[in-house]
C-alpha cells in the first residue's frame, strides 16, 4: 500500500465520521482538478486530526524522515532526495533537452 493510502486509512480508521472522509475522497477522485473537492478533503482530515491529538503523532511516525540538504556558495542548489528535472543556475542559463 502506498504512503498516502496508509495515511488516509489510518486517519479514516480513527475519525469520528469516516463516511465524511469517504465522501470527500470519492468527490476528489471523481474530479481531481476540483479545488473545492480538494479543500473538502483537507477539511475532513483537519477535523479528524483536531479531534484526536494523539493521531497527529501517529501520522508523523508513519512519514519518512526528512533528509538534510546543505548548499554553499552563490547560486548553489540544495536538494534533499532526488531531482527528476533540470536544475540550473546563473544569468542567461539555457537548458536544452535532447532525445
Report on this model:
The chain is mainly alpha-helical. It has a domain at 3-62. The protein has four helices and no strands. It has helices at 3-14, 18-30, 35-51, 53-62. Helix 2 (18-30) packs antiparallel against helix 3 (35-51) and helix 3 (35-51) crosses helix 4. The longest helix has 17 residues, at 35-51. The two termini are 34 Å apart.
Structural class based on helices, strands and sheet pairing: mainly alpha
Q: Assess the beta-strand content as a share of residues.
A: under 5%
Total E-strand runs: 0
Fraction of residues in H or I helices: 40-55%
Head-to-tail CA distance between termini: 34 Å
Q: What is the number of helical segments per DSSP (H or I, 4+ residues)? A: 4
Oligomeric description of these chains: single chain
Mean of residue pLDDT values: 86
Order of helices and strands: HHHH
> What form results from the Cα inertia axes?
elongated
**Mind summarizing the main beta sheet?**
none
> Which regions are unreliable across 5 or more consecutive residues at pLDDT < 50?
none
State Rg: 19 Å
Any chance you could write out the topology, listing elements then pairs?
Layout: H1 3-14, H2 18-30, H3 35-51, H4 53-62
Which properties best describe this structure?
mainly alpha, single chain, elongated, 99 residues
Brief write-up:
With 99 residues, the protein is mainly α.
